[in-house]
Amino acid sequence: MPKNQTSAAQPREKAGAKVVLWLLLGLVVLFGGLYVAAHYVAGDKVPRNTTVSGVRIGGHPQGEAAERLRAGLADRVARDIATTVDGQQVAIDPAQAGLSVDYEASVAEAGGERSWDPVRLWNYFTGGDAFEAEVEVDETAYNAFLAGLDEQYGAVARDGAIRFAGDQIETTRPRAGRALDPSDTLDALEEVFLEESPDAVALEMAEVEPAIDASDVQEALDGFASPAVAAPVTLAFEGSQVKLPPADYTSALTLEPVDGELVPKLDAARLTEVVGGKVTQGAPVDASVALVDGTPQVVPAKPGVTFDAAELEAGFLGVAAAPQGERTLTLSAQVAKPEFTTKDARALRVRERVSTFTTYFPYAEYRNVNIGRAAEIVDGTLLKPGETFSLNDTVGERTEANGFTKGYVINDGILVQDLGGGVSQMATTLFNAMFFAGLEDVEHKPHSFYIDRYPVGREATVAWGAVDLRFRNDTPYGVLIDTSFRSSTPSSSGAVTVTMYSTKYWDITTTTGERYNITQPKTRRIDDLTCHPNEGYGGFDIDVVRYFRPVGENTETREDEVFSTTYIPSDTVVCTNPDAVDE
């Protein structure tokens, strides 16, 4: 081709290429526009020919489609499901059974969602299938409803069981139950829940085997329960043995269902309590003397046994199931002997009543509380030969925490209120019981002025931290102090009695002299709000003599003992404050 022809053809080819390029660009723009338009037309609408459980929702946005579905299924969701349970007609409320419809999820499953996916756009314009609504199940509500059906129309399976009653075994026979199968029942209800014209659903009860059947019961009887009550279990401590009959320890045993078996369980705390009743766990207990039906008797000492409760727990189930001849559990233990033995207690020779004394008091609730509490604490005190009794040490400080309340006491010759008022009644009664038992007076202080319900010259007062009543058992025998108390009432006096038991060592007599050095009371005018008026009387001196005559094996002689007491006058108290309250 000539050179000039080649040059002419090249511009024509370039022009054609440009036309093709613009044509292609135009097509891209056209189809892109159509694609974008299709996306916006489809939006989140459900494909046009879509139905869900027979309800047409195609061509509508997702929210609107969900509402159309809700309205279309409203009658079906609200109606009862007709069923028969073992032939009995039962109408089931879907809501009570935990059934409902998730409308939004149903629409989304049907394709009602916005997307650039070309398949989604194609389906919207050309597709649309028949879907079933998404059914939700509230498992808690369903299980509760199903349990109600089982209870009403079925029968609960009964597990076999074994329990101990002392040394006897009681068994519960297993029994099969009848119940609806949870999975099959739910499938059947879901299948007809949203059908337009459902038939009645036949629900059949199935047999339910107990978790613990007859073979499980027999296995537990043979393997544990029967051997456990066949013979005692022996606990071997260092130097001693304790035999436990089945009736004692079976209260600590149970057989509990675990993974289809009856498994022995041990109440370790209960077993330790049982063993503790056979031995004195921990520190030993000294012998003592106590009244039994009014007669002093020796309470034997108990050795203390210290053992490891965890060791007892770990080995007991095994030995309880062992055959005869192998039912001994050896425990690492220490046996501690008491310091005061049964032989020591017998040597005290506390055998008979050697003195008793009773005082009476007028009604006042504080006296009932305070005297009664002091008597309770003193009761049962055992004085060994040479020991000294202290009322303050024995009773302790008179506080509310210790069981005492406020009452009248003498302070500076007049009556005031303080905690423990009235305890001096106990002190006076103790003093007189000691006096006639022939014990040694170590410390006693009479009241500052005479109180006419007490024996003149033979009475005592106490005050915590200041004044005490103390006496020593200077006989070769033990002395047991017993108290009894009767409350006062508005119409009757109260009484407190102290009785001492020992072997009689002295025969005590006494004389009381005439009053002398008589003094007259004064009148005191007090302006305090807490003033307590009092009608005064005179003071005096008096002497009381205690005479000792040896009794029984006693070969001692003792001089007469003189108790000289000075009582100050009890002043007349006049309360001058008009607001004073006599509590």
Automatic annotation (TrEMBL):
The chain crosses the membrane at residues 20-42. It holds the Pfam family PG_binding_4. Keywords: Membrane, Transmembrane, Transmembrane helix. Residues 92-196 form the YoaR-like putative peptidoglycan binding domain. This is YoaR-like putative peptidoglycan binding domain-containing protein. It comes from Nocardioides ganghwensis.
